[in-house]
Amino acid sequence: MLGFVIRRLLTSVVVLFLASILVFTAVALGGDPLAELRSNPLTPPQVIEAKRRELNLDKPVPVRYGIWLKGFLSGDMGKDNRNRDVQNRISRAFFLTLRMSVIAAFVAVVLAIAVGVYSAVRQYSISDYVFTFTGFLFLSMPVFWLAALLKLYGAVRFNNLFGEDVTIVYTAGAQSPNLPEGFWARMADYAGHLALPALALALISYAAWSRYQRATMLDVLNSDYVRLARAKGLKSSRVLVRHALRNALIPLTTVVAIDIGAVFAGAVITETVFAWQGMGRLLIQSIRTYDANTLLAWMMVVGVFVILFNLVADILYGVLDPRIRV
Amino acid sequence: MSVTDPSTEGAPSLRPGGGTAAPEREFTVTARSQGRMVLRRFLQHRLAVASGIILILVVLLALLGGRFWKYSHEELTDELSSPPSLEHPMGTDGPGHDNFAQVLRGAQKSVQIALTVALVSTTIGTLIGALAGYYRGITDTLLMRFTDLLLVIPALVFFALLANRFAGSGWLALSFSLAAILWTTIARVVRGVFLSLREKEYVEAARALGASDRRIMFRHLLPNAAGPIIVNATITVAVAILVETSLSFIGLGVQIPDTSLGRLISVNQQAATTRPWLFYFPGLFIIIIALTVNFLGDGLRDAFDPTQRRVRA
Fold first, then answer.
1. Alpha helix (H) residue ranges in chain A
2. What value of ipTM does the predicted structure carry?
């Protein structure tokens, strides 16, 4: 087990290292970070030259990569093109987007298990077909469209339910500009801002997972040991929960872990609809301005997050099902 | 497109039970090829067949509809922001563009991109997966580590980077950038199939007869891997259309002066409460395309591999 974890971590480090070279080269050859500065004819050439030297653009690409790598290894993510601290900006944006991803993933998992199990138990019933169809529908729906739909039509209707000038769910930003006083008021404010984007993301992620949960639950329900449990005369609720469900949950952990990167990417798209200052905005900005340091920090942070999540899932898989040797 | 052919060609003559050739004797047994059995199973899946037909119609409409519609997507009409009517079935936008022409144009780009991505990524993925699975050893390790590399890094960074880099140079470049990432799933599937198939007796027989590696790979193994490849290629169309529209939505995909369904939604979402037709129709097109593709893929999977079907409780 320990050997497995170490091996996995080592390969991950190599993979991230190679990925950083790829991304750095792509950014460096992609475009000119000073294009905006140059486009203004009034900028004196000395300023451009100074900026060029400041960003090390006068050095060849491998040297620039070396500078970045040296800084990164000593825990310094460097400055962005406008001389702002990358680490500060990334960590703020990351936790914002992470908050949405985690809550959406949690809601999606709970929903997927409930619907998947119900569909499996009532296979080929009308509700099973309805759930199957809605699952396919969400699977085929772009997340930004659903998000925009909720924002434009859901939010207003929902708020109107509670009277004219009441705002329960918000449609812009991750929090109000002037946060209310008090812990609960603040939490309510966060939740109100989080509700719609997280719901959109959860519905999209839930679709594939519920299909998967239904399939594994059916597998388990048709297995011999469940038949035995029934034959012993156990109550059907006990068979379902204690015998079937416990085993049917194991494969889902892997699927969720593998998909967590996709959920995060979905969050990046969703937050642009709701004007969050999260990872999505940072990604688009840094790509537009060819900001190598920000982009690399972005990739590293998200990459490490995804890798760690996959690792935890693999370990969990072995713990949940002792027959599986990791 | 090749995926959907079976549902149209030769369908009438293959209705189960309605054999065309009358048996010569009472107990004549006519051999059924693998392809016919797959087709027969597929045709029994009514939802998948219906999805296939709708998909073909929508794709044709997207690819060719723009030529026959009375307005072009750049044309300005006198009606500004008018709701859907007989003259403008999907209404018009603020400057007076006919929304149906816009949606057709957007759908054309999105469909072109999705089909190209599926074709290119399936080709690359099949080739790499086949090489890795057939030769194993160092080839396998190298190719699969490379695949891991693309799977582990947040794909969004690469999509965004490539899309931003090549978006200005047209939809074809954008398709190739998307395909450059999306081939990994198919490579993994094909590798898995090849790994198990290469141990079969018929491969050994072919090798004993002196068949070359290339012949074994392409004449013996590839046809047997066709099922998973076709199913994955179908699903890739749905994935590609969702990724492309998302990128175009955040402004990194298809660029002005061209348009795609994602860009239309992004442009129109501000006006959506007052002119909902501008927002709904492009989204509806995406959903119809992706939904029918997914149903089709599901039907094909059942048809190719009936053993995967869940046991009926």
1. 2-30, 35-39, 45-54, 61-73, 86-121, 126-139, 143-149, 155-161, 183-221, 224-231, 236-238, 246-248, 250-273, 279-288, 292-320
2. 0.85
